[in-house]
Request: fold
Amino acid sequence: GIQVEQSPPDLILQEGANSTLRCNFSDSVNNLQWFHQNPWGQLINLFYIPSGTKQNGRLSATTVATERYSLLYISSSQTTDSGVYFCAVRLQGGSEKLVFGKGTKLTVNP
Amino acid sequence: NAGVTQTPKFQVLKTGQSMTLQCAQDMNHNSMYWYRQDPGMGLRLIYYSASEGTTDKGEVPNGYNVSRLNKREFSLRLESAAPSQTSVYFCASSEDYSPLHFGNGTRLTVT
Reply:
């Protein structure tokens, strides 16, 4: 099946710093999403981004489908950005299944 | 707009007991999913339903059954709970080519 790898596995930042999270996938996809799981366990959809670039406030994401990776940028990080960030992909021509990476745990210190 | 609602939020079972996790969505989505989350493993798909009346196995279906009762509701049943099923369970829903929406999860402990 499709492999989804996220890096780095852990990231510690000071408030105000910028960061880039990466998601690599092993096959062509037609669906890629980024999620944030907050410290209370809630999973929030950040971006639906099978290709191209999107921005939402301090967060932006870019997917280069032909090179099989996606990047999530967090600028001017805040303590509320802490949590785990997951990417999930669906294989092109495959079923409805979304396969998740193991996540990047982000800690933003004040 | 409630989104995706899961019940219960917490549950403790003894080995061999059965239970059903309930999930309902009010967004008129066709597709619904059950995932489990374990430390260091990310989210793994148990079962999904692409439309009312259909269900398919995901990565880790053993020990579970599902029912897509109608378009709104998708339940997950553990017939004989085992300690290996201790996990956090998430229900989710979506339309084709649109964001996935999660419920708040059910934390299940099997002793």
Observations:
- Chain A is about 0% helix and 60% strand.
- The mean pLDDT of chain A is 94.
- Chain A touches chain B at residues 1, 30-31, 33, 35, 41-45, 48, 50, 86, 88, 95-103 (CB under 8 Å).
- The two ends of chain A are 40 Å apart (CA to CA).
